[in-house]
């Protein structure tokens, strides 16, 4: 009876969380999928058309451009954020004067509104009036003044750098928490056995940070696939949609073109890709640990 009582208590305590989860996570996904199977303009009745929107998606060159740009941003973010945030966490783990102030300053970009992030980086990267190109021109290096944003080639890489700047403090804080959880006794024992700092790093610190790395990779994947405001301010997907990422393309299709059904198809694919990438990574990382 006591066991039944505990089970019942746990069940009732989980009900509010499950209601919120169903209402804010599951239901929007299901509604989005339903409208992705329809032709709907936001007014009147949705007309069921089956998988026509997904068939159209496969032949939509702009969708593939937005997917390519999103994957470039993801690759740049993973390459810069993981080592960058980890090294930053190692530096923050060293006790120094005003250490708390340094940690707060490091975290600051993460709490800046994405719209403000976009505005800040427009003034840095804009081809005509951006700080980088102005400085290069003043130094007589005008040949290196490139179209960092708004061009065909460099824009997704620039978006990846902006996303890195925005997220590095947050991910470094998570890495720092992981470093704090490693028992000091392990380092002391290894030192007594003759291990130097480099050996401790590769044989103790990095292996014991596996779960923290996994969390940060998933956060990067989900963060990249929902980038919106920053890209909207930087380029608004232009010129000619060449710098679209998946969320901005979905937004423009849904709210600018009024094709709600097709926009929901893009949203559904975006959600599925986020889920697939996260599951693949977690599965591969689990297998590597077992081996």
UniProtKB/TrEMBL annotation:
Q: Which CDD domains match?
A: TM_PBP2 (cd06261)
The UniProt entry, under SUPFAM superfamilies, shows: MetI-like (SSF161098)
InterPro entries from the UniProt entry = ABC_transporter_permease, MetI-like, MetI-like_sf
> Pfam family of this protein, just one?
BPD_transp_1
Membrane spanning stretches: 12-35, 71-92, 104-124, 157-179, 213-234, 260-284
The record's subcellular location field reads: Cell membrane
Where does the record place the ABC transmembrane type-1 domain?
Answer: 67-281
The family database entries (Gene3D superfamilies) matched by this protein are listed as: MetI-like (1.10.3720.10)
- Primary site of residence: membrane
- Record's keyword annotation contains Membrane: yes
For this chain, the family text in UniProt reads: Belongs to the binding-protein-dependent transport system permease family.
What protein name does the entry list? Answer: Carbohydrate ABC transporter membrane protein 1, CUT1 family
């Amino acid at each position: 009876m006591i066991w039944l009582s505990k089970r019942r208590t746990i069940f009732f305590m989980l009900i509010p969380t499950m209601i919120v989860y169903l209402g804010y996570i599951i239901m929007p996904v299901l509604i989005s999928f339903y409208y992705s199977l329809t032709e709907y303009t936001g007014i009147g009745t949705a007309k069921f058309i089956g998988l026509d929107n997904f068939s159209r998606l496969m032949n939509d060159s702009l969708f593939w451009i937005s997917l390519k740009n999103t994957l470039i941003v993801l690759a740049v973010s993973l390459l810069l954020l993981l080592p960058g945030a980890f090294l930053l966490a190692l530096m923050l783990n060293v006790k120094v004067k005003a250490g708390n102030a340094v940690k707060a300053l490091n975290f600051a970009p993460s709490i800046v509104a994405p719209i403000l992030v976009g505005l800040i980086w427009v003034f840095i990267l804009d081809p005509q009036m951006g700080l980088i190109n102005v400085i290069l021109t003043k130094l007589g290096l005008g040949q290196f003044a490139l179209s960092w944003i708004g061009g065909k080639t460099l824009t997704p890489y620039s978006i990846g750098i902006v996303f890195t700047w925005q997220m590095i403090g947050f991910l470094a804080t998570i890495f720092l928490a992981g470093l704090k959880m490693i028992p000091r006794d392990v380092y002391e024992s290894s030192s007594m056995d003759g291990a130097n700092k480099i050996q401790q790093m590769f044989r103790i610190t990095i292996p014991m940070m596996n779960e923290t790395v996994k969390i940060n990779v998933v956060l990067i994947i989900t963060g990249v696939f929902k980038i919106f405001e920053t890209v909207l301010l930087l380029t608004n997907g232009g010129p000619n949609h060449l710098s679209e990422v998946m969320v901005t393309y979905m937004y423009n299709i849904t709210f600018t073109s009024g094709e709600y059904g097709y926009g929901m198809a893009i949203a559904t694919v975006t959600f599925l890709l986020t889920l697939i990438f996260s599951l693949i990574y977690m599965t591969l990382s689990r297998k590597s640990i077992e081996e």
